[in-house]
Structure formats: structure tokens, C-alpha cells
Amino acid sequence: MERQIINKKKRVFSVEPNKSHSAAFTRKYISHLVPALKKLNMNKNSSQITQQTVKHEVDMALALSAQEFAWSRFLLQKLSSSKNPTTTTNSSSKGTQVLERPDKEGGDEEGEIEEKLRELQKLLPGGEEMNVEEMLSEIGDYIKCLELQTIALKSIVQDTT
Amino acid sequence: MMMDRATQSEFFLNYTDMSVLERQRAQLKYHHPGFDSTLAGFLSDSSMINGGEFGGFMGASGSDFPVIYGETATGSDSRLSISPDNITTSATFGSGNFKKRKFNSVVTESKGCNAKKVMMNREVEEEEEKSKITEQNNESTMTMKDKSKKEQSNCSKDSSKVTKELQKTDYIHVRARRGQATDSHSIAERARREKISERMKYLQDLVPGCDKITGKAGMLDEIINYVQSLQRQVEFLSMKLAAVSPRIDFDIDDIFAKEVVSAPITTNLPNTVMPSHEMVNSGYPHEMVNSGYLHFNPVQQVVTSSDPLSCFNVNNGQAPSMWDSDVQNLYSSLGV
To answer: Which region ranges are annotated with the description Disordered (chain A) (predicted)?
Structure first.
């Protein structure tokens, strides 16, 4: 009890405001994902829960937790529209690599960069509809959310194994 | 013709490497007292007037004003005029005039200098005449100049910023250097490119291992690879989750409802195994709000609970293992 009081008095606020933003995201993510998984479990008690549906829930939770970003809207659209949702990782799971081009003259460098930017756009949900500057800033947020998502998923998996 | 310190402070030299934004910022800073110390540090790598005898510098880094260039007439003192309220480019003003002058936001190229010219129109009538003269002078001198260096700054964007800051300018004329396109397209293009490189720098900080790479292409490669690896990780984990999920007793979550654990957020995810003390925020939102804190020191972990039975740990990495064992105890007690 004492410790409780002590701890409550010892309110620690994050010195890095960004991190509390991350906390908010993680919290939202978990609170979206776990009930969804629960529901999934209950609905499909006998049938096997496919990886696809889980992935769907995972992505859905991601999109719902990050609604301040443009990419999440696109992701949500994609998820809700398609019956068998194509996950965002489909393109990456096919092993698309960064294009290895033979060395060309310097004049082609701009084209190379543009090529890479287009590639990046493909990775980001909805990236192709954005212009480059917007895409670059959205990519930053997307990366952060992906990282938090992986942390959260790892925690869930670890806790249960 | 080295100018003495007092007048030096009033003079600016236009340097090719200085972006318009810097110059504009420099002008603002000029308004603030105590900027003199920055004078000496001004653009050391820029071309010098009169073969290096130039004396009037304005600190560029972090300085807020547009640089105004004096033109060195044949062997005479370099003349710079700074007037906050109107366009002036001084080519022929005596040094006495400078003191009278207020800030000048016109940047002109001085002889032999490559510079970008930015003019901001202001409404001070008394200066109008002079400015006309100086503009004429400048134009004539401009034609004589060699402009070769590329300017990077974004005039149109800067202009909007400057107008906000200075509040008197109606519009900004941008003069590009000779050899550079002056149409609005290329200026907008330059603006865009600056923005993009700004974002790239931000991404560089975000993606681990990117700071060692220079060059857009390499960085973009890294970023692409990183995003792909993150996405693959998510896929892999969700696969694992699918396999594990039947075993998850989701009621556990209710138990954890009262427990609020803050998860240290690490960003070196792809390369490292997740530290064992990382925990997930399993609390419900209102609980988090009630508990009122978040602590994200990656080394420490703050755990609180409104349940008197649960344990509190404020630790430096030792308690995590304790916490884990508690979790496992809970799980085992629930028969999972």
C-alpha cells in the first residue's frame, strides 16, 4: 500500500514527448488487436485460424491505431474493401529487392533515385497516390508505427509461449 | 579598404553559398543587438570581394538577415547598404549613408561575386529614389558579373517566410544567377528538392545505420530495405500469433487491465533480439490516463498498479526478470 502511494506520488512523465506518442499508439494497438483476436478465437473455435485472417486483424489494428496518418486511411480502405485482403507485405514477401542497376553515367542518377522513390511508394500503403514530399514524411511515421507494432506483437507472442 | 568595425557591422557580403533563407534570417537577426560577434564568422568559404580583402561579414549560421552586398567600385570601399524598410542596393553610397539606412533586404551581387539577388519591395518613399538608382547600378553591374555557382535556396518559399517575418514586404523578386533558369518552374523545383532533402535527413535519423551513408540513392536503399524488413517481421510475427492464438487466454488481458506497464521503445529492432524486459501496454486506456505517467527510459521500467496485490517495480533492469517470472506464475496459475 505504501509503495502504491509512493509510486503514485512519483509521477514520471516522459521527457521525450515523442515516446508518449509511441505509448499511445502501442496502447491503442493492443487494445484493438487483442479483442479482435479474442473474437476471432471465439468465432472460429473449431476451424483453424488462418494466418491471413490474423494478418488482416494485425493490419486492421495498425490502421486503427494510427488514424492521424494518411497511410492508415489507405490501409483501412484496402482492408475493408477486399474480401481476401492483400496484405501490405505481399509485395515484400515476394522478395522485391532494391533494383540493382548496372553502373550508368551520372546523368542517370536522378532517374535511379526516382526509381527508388517509386519503390518506396509501393511499400507504403497509399504511397502511390501521394506526391514525393508527402510520401517521405508519411514513410517516417509508417516506420515508427511498424516498429511499435513489431514490439507489441513480439510481446504478445512471447507472453503466450 | 578594410572598413572599420563599426561600419563593418552594417555591411554584408553576398556569398554564393548562402541561401536566401539564411540571408533573410540574417537580416532579422541583425535587428537584434549583439550580433556583431557573428560578423567574423560569416561564410568563410565564399568568394571574396576584391580578392579577399573584404571586410564586411555577417554571421551566416543562424543569422537571420538577408545579405546585402556592397559593390566594390573600382578600388573604393565596398558599399553595403542595409535598410529594413525598403529596397536598396547600394553601389555608390558613401559610408555615411549606411548609418542612416535601415535594413535593406535587397541582395545584390557585388562585382566579382556570384550571388543571388533577392529584392523585397518595401514602401519607404524616401528611399525610393535611391533605390532606383541603385537598382540601375546593380543591373548594370550584374550584367558584368560572372555567375557560375548554383544557388540552392528556395526563393519562393523563402519569400513567404520572409513576408511573414518582416511584415512589410509585398512581394519578392527573385533573380537567379546567369546560367540558371529563372522561370517559376525551376524555382519551385528547387524548393521541392530542398524539402525532399530535409525529409531525407529526418529519415536518416529514423532508420538505424543510415547515418553512415551519404547520398540519396544509398539512403533510399537503406530505407527501402528497412521498411521491407519491418513488414516481413510483422508478417512473421502474425504467423506466429496465428499459431499461438488458440492458446491465448484472452482473459489474461482483463487481469492486466489494472496493470499498466510501460514498454521501453527501442528502435534497433531489426538487428537485435527484443530485450527480455520489454513489455506491452496491456492496460486499458482509461487506466493509463488514471495512472498518469509514462516512462520510456529503455533501461528502466516503471510499473504501477491499482491492485494492491500486484507488485511495483522501479528498477534498473533487474526487476524485469522478476516481473517475467510473476507473469509466468500468473499464467501457470490460470492453467495456460
So the answer is: 81-112
ipTM confidence score: 0.74
Q: Where are the domains of chain B?
A: 2-153, 216-334
Q: Tell me: the pLDDT tens digits for A44-92?
A: 665 566 777 777 778 888 888 777 787 788 788 777 776 444 444 444 4
User: Which residues in chain B are contacts of A87 at CB distance < 8 A?
Assistant: 235
Contacts of A134 in chain B (CB under 8 A): none
A93's grid cell? 514477401
Could you say which of B200, B203, B235 has the minimum Cβ distance to residue A89?
A: B235
Shortest distance, CA B304 to any CA of chain A (angstroms)? 7
Domain boundaries, chain A: 20-86+112-160
**Strands (DSSP E) found in B47-116:** 64, 71-72, 78-79
Q: Which helix (H) or strand (E) holds A123?
A: helix A109-123
Tens of pLDDT, residues B62-102: 444 444 444 443 444 444 444 444 444 444 444 444 444 44
What pTM does this model have? 0.45
Interface of A with B in 12-31 (CB under 8 A): 12-14, 16, 19-20, 22-23, 26-28, 30-31
